[in-house]
Structure formats: structure tokens, C-alpha cells
Amino acid sequence: MEVVDAVSVHGNGKAEIEDFDISAVVQPEPLPPILAAENGDKQNGREIVLGKNVHTTCLEVTEPEANDEFTGDKEAYMASVLARYRKNLMERTKYHLGYPYNLDFDYGALGQLQHFSINNLGDPFIESNYGVHSRQFEVGVLDWFARLWEIEKNEYWGYITNCGTEGNLHGILVGREVLPDGVLYASRESHYSVFKAARMYRMDCEKVDCLISGEIDTADFKAKLLANKDKPAIINVNIGTTVKGAVDDLDLVIQTLEESGFSQDRFYIHCDGALFGLMMPFVKRAPKVTFKKPIGSVSVSGHKFVGCPMPCGVQITRMEHIDVLSRNVEYLASRDATIMGSRNGHAPIFLWYTLNRKGYKGFQKEVQKCLRNAHYLKDRLHDAGISAMLNELSSTVVFERPLDEEFVRRWQLACQGNIAHVVVMPSVTIEKLDDFLNELVEKRSTWYRDGGVQPPCIAADVGCENCACALHKLSILS
Ligand SMILES: Cc1ncc(COP(=O)(O)O)c(C=O)c1O
């Protein structure tokens, strides 16, 4: 019997926690059905439904009784919906491998703050008239990241964003404000938010080719820079690409700019560290991200490696750049230099809490564990004759897309074309990887049993040496 805490609200309005046998009333929810598309967009034979909102899993909102009081029935219904949802979350957390979220945390101590509407609207460094804020935590977290990226307290400006995307939108906007007629350069494997920024700000954008690893191809970068020599350059450098976890070589990017005749006042570099921004500082061989180099901004997601339970991120830029963006807002009694208006005031507290608990040493240990476990996964895939690639500085293991979509959804794998990936985060243990591998190997033996269908060749994505298709498998095993 599984016993969980259930909250019951009594007539006096007080909530109490009591033991509650969840399995007596709640069955795990099945996975949502695979959608059949009408007017679908076909990508690699898989349909994406466009222009069709799906309501099959919607939990309808029902109006309260006429007397405006909660009835016992409604309370019981809502409690059972929440209990079922919680059970579902527990189940889905067990089988998650594809997205770079660290699901291993304990923020029990922060439960007491849920009753407050904490909002850091405006500038983190200027108190607004709204007093229920967490700026003291926010600035503490920003100072920690400023130390990590080597910029003095009086030389940086930053804020806690809603996510890595907002960091990219902000970094690229600062770049555009500093160099208004700049061309945006980003490798093809950059996150879609970078190209969204180009569309939002109506910037000229050059997509730069990538190496097989997913790293920016600096030869193509140079050719594109030279073709636009008369315009300044705004560059998005990936500290971990979304699909292959490739880390662009920041030093080589700077060298390419210099060799192409771009002086430091004619380029602005934004480092998109959403994925590995907090991992690379602990990997010795990684190109160092530091404001001692001529970079303009760095952003990172807070809910990925750090393990914050709500989406958030950190954005740091140089103080000298921010004045071009900020405006005074009398209504706030503050300055507006962020993308959003209201800002989640809980997120800084979660970040502050986890940074305090883990510190540099704790993150370093976790990074080492992730890299070790990622190697384990890649090696075991190769041993089983499955195409797989792991970039040297990465914990993202790229492998052949499983044939069965049911399997993809069960393990919540992120896929693109013929490849899928597992992002090994601190919550991904060897046991979980073993369960996944055993299941994959067993399923493959049925998918490819009679030899009619063959595993795909993914040499173009991972290189011949990592491909175990019928044509390339010899090189992987030799
Ligand atoms: C390289 C990269 N940049 C930006 C983002 C966007 O981050 P977020 O999901 O926090 O908005 C992601 C998300 O996976 C990413 O992989």
C-alpha cells in the first residue's frame, strides 16, 4: 500500500495533513494517445498537428454552488484530482530521460513561503514600492554567478529570468542595442529561441554551419563574417547545444572574429549557457566562459542542471551595456531593463537555497557523476550494437531514434529526425540507465526481429565511427 500525505481542509478553514491510501482511489493515468493529424505537418514521417488545439486531457473548471460555498462533494472531487495528478507526476518523474532537467531536489524547507505573492518586478538592484519581494536573495545569487564568470560586482548587471529563453532574448537585445545595425550569427544547432529573437527584433541573421559534433564550424563562420564585413557582428555562442550537447569553442570564435578584421568594439558575444552554463566551469578541458574575455552576456537556465522546481534562469551582462536598454518607470519607482514585467520572486529563493547547500564543490561532484554516467550509457549502447555519440564535454548521449513512439513517450525522449537523446542530469542514476538500456535492447529485438525493417543509418548525425547501421557497424566494433 502506498501512503502519501493528503491535505484536507476542515470547516474551520485550516488545512491538515493526514495519511491517505492513494492507491484505494487513484489509478495511474495512461499516457496520452498519439494524435492522428488532420492538416498535419510531416517531419521525417512524423506528424505534428498544427492549428488544432487538443482538449482531450483537459480538466474542466466547474462553477461553485450558487451559495458560493464549497460543498463536501466538490472538495472530495478536487482532492481526488490533485491526488491523481500527484501520482501521475511521481510516475512520469521515474521515467524521464530526454530533457535536461535535474529532478533530484528537496525544497521542503521552502514550503512555508508558498503563502506569499513574491514578485521582483523591476530592477533587482533598485527597490520598488512593492515590498513583498526577494531581491536580497536575487542579488546574492547574481553575485555568485558573477564570481563564477569572473566579473566584479560593480561591473556587472543581471537578473533572474523566467527561463533560458528569456536570457537569450535579453542577451541578444542588449547586443542589438549596443550595435544597432549588427548582423546576428548563430550556428544552425542553436536553440530556437535565438532565431525567435532574430524574428522578434527583425535582425538580419546568418545561420552558420556546424561540424558533425554540433559545434559551430568556424570556417563557415569566417566566410559569413567576411561577406558582411561592413556590419558589426552579434554572435550567439552555444555552451551546450540543445540536441547534441556540443560546446562551441569560445576562444576559436573570438580568434575568428579578430582574424576577420572585427575589433572588439564591432562585435558582441552572447553565451547561451542554458544547458551547460553551470557544468562547463567544472570541466577542465572546456573553453572557459569568463568576462575577462570580450563577451557581452551569459545566460543559464535554473531548472536544468541546478534543479529548480520551476522554470527560471540567470542573465548576467556588463553594467556599461545596460544603460542603453533601461528606462525609469515612475509607477514601479524602479528602472526597467528586463524583458518581463512581473518576475517570479520564489525562483531566486530556490536558487539561493540550492547554491548554498551545494556550493562549487557540490556542483563539481555532480558534474563528474553526470559525465561518468553519460560515458557509461554511451559505452553500453555501443556494446549492444546501437549507434550512439557523446561529445567530449557533454552529458548528452545521442543515439538512434527508437522505432516505437510509445517507447519514446514512456521515457520522454527528445527526438529530431532519426536521432534521440538522453541528457544525463544528476537525477539520472546508473539503475535508471540500466532499466532503460535493458528495455531498449529487449524492444529492439522485437522491432528488428525479422530483418524487414533495419535500424536507421545515423552516420550523418553522429559520424561513421559511431554508427552501427548495416553499412557502418564494423567501424564501431573495431
Ligand atoms: C541551448 C539551449 N538554449 C536555450 C534553451 C531554452 O531554455 P529554456 O527552456 O530554459 O527556456 C534551451 C532549452 O533546452 C537550450 O537547450
Number of helical regions: 12
Question: How many domains make up the 3D coordinates?
Answer: 3
User: Strand order, biggest sheet?
Assistant: 5-11-10-9-8-6-7
Low-confidence stretches: 1-26, 35-41
Concise summary:
With 478 residues, the protein is α/β, with parallel strands linked by helices. It has helices at 72-94, 135-148, 164-178, 192-200, 218-227, 250-259, 319-322, 346-383, 405-410, 430-447, 459-462, 473-477; strands at residues 3-9, 15-21, 41-43, 46-48, 156-161, 183-187, 205-208, 233-238, 267-272, 297-301, 313-318, 327-329, 334-336, 388-390, 396-400, 414-416, 419-423. Its cofactor is pyridoxal 5'-phosphate.
List keywords for this structure.
alpha/beta; 478 residues; seven-stranded mixed β-sheet; single chain; disordered N terminus; Aspartate Aminotransferase, domain 1
What do these coordinates show?
With 478 residues, this protein is an alpha/beta fold. It has 3 domains: 92 residues, no CATH class; 223 residues, 3-Layer(aba) Sandwich (Aspartate Aminotransferase, domain 2), CATH 3.40.640.10; 119 residues, Aspartate Aminotransferase, domain 1. Strands 5-11-10-9-8-6-7 form a 7-stranded mixed sheet, with helices on both faces. A 4-stranded antiparallel sheet has the order 14-15-17-16, covered by helices on one side. A two-stranded antiparallel ribbon has the order 1-2. The longest helix has 38 residues. The N and C termini lie far apart (50 Å). The structure holds pyridoxal-5'-phosphate. The site of pyridoxal-5'-phosphate (PLP) has 17 residues, from helix 3.
